[in-house]
Amino acid sequence: MNQIGKHVLVDYTSGTFGDFLRYLISLHDGFEKFDNVDFITEDLQNNGSLFPKVACYPNKRINFLKANTIDKFNSEFDRLMPNNKDHRQVYKIMSIINDGSGGAHSCVGVTWLTEGAVINGIPFKWNYDDYNVVRQTDHKIIFISLSPFSKYKDIYLERHRIWDDFYEKNHNDKLHLECWAKNYMNNDYYPKHKLNYVFEINELLDKNEDAYLDLINFINVKPIDNWKAYVDEFNGLLFSK
Questions:
Q1: Which residue in 8, 111, 112, 137 has the fewest CB atoms around it within 10 Å?
Q2: Three-class SS of 180-203
Q3: In angstroms, rounded to a whole number, what is the distance separating the alpha carbons of residues 67 and 212?
Q4: What angle do CA 64, 70, 72 make, to 5 degrees?
């Protein structure tokens, strides 16, 4: 087994997939369970566009507006997760540096933009300031990778269509997919560290045993017998339309 790294940050830009992984991890021994988890469809931007969502309560989301130094980060972590001394926590962040439209749940960048792309008049650049704060802890970081060649591609793209409609951007599926595929093939954007792990979540959602065993080995927990039932429930939500 790898070094424990008591807590786990699930880092993602792929919407509801990351929240499902947080929920699944929380079911393993040693992690604090969420008080409540809802599998729902939600009107993301109040425009009538329903999208599947896994809602975890409490949210356990650290906003880097309040946590941009290690002291502030630790203070926010203790405030939002007061039981962290007794139970491992699985959490997410809200970054302030990523995509020019209010942040994302990633401490390194966004998978749908190419370095140099102009966003709100400013060239996009992958930025590791938030990552460098988290990496001063012993927390493990799971960077979620979603294959643009998987059956989950259209679900991911639909979420971005909804976002872009809300922000009055001109969404272009073809250009988005080309950039996403390029970044997917070149995952060197993700920093290397013994406590970092790039996890291809579509393999888990396809119920690949090796993918699940690699995940639990990284976070150092025992497997649960019925993990595939949770995956089936999530896939039922994703493909319920």
A1: 137
A2: HHHHHHCHHHCCCCCCEEEEEHHH
A3: 31
A4: 60
Q: Can you tell me the distance from the alpha carbon of 179 to that of 236, in angstroms, rounded to the nearest whole number?
A: 28
Residue 31's identity, in one-letter code, is F
Residue ranges covered by each domain of the chain: 8-238
- Round the average pLDDT of the chain to a whole number and report it: 87
| Amino acid identity, position 78 | D
| Structure-block tokens of residue 78 | 């203790």
8-238: which CATH topology? Rossmann fold (3.40.50)
Q: Is residue 65 within 8 Å of 96, Cβ to Cβ?
A: yes
Contact 69, 60 (CB under 8 A): no
Tens digit of each residue's pLDDT (9 = 90 or more) over 23-66 = 999 999 999 999 999 999 877 666 667 788 899 999 999 999 89
d(CA 177, CA 23): 28
Name residue, tokens 């302030």. Answer: 96
* Alpha-carbon distance values, 136 to 73, 133, 139, 142 (Å): 10, 6, 9, 16
Residue closest to 51 by CA, chosen among 16, 93, 94? 16
DSSP code of residue 142: E
Tell me the C-alpha distance between 130 and 133, whole Å.
5
Q: What is the 3-state secondary structure (H, E, C) of 15-29?
A: CHHHHHHHHHHHCCC
- The per-residue pLDDT for range 154-171, each reduced to its tens digit, is 988 887 777 666 555 666
Q: How far apart are CA 129 and CA 97, in angstroms?
A: 8
The owner of tokens 């786990």 is 8
Degrees, nearest 5: CA angle 160-161-163: 60
Q: What are the structure tokens assigned to 27, written together? A: 């079911």
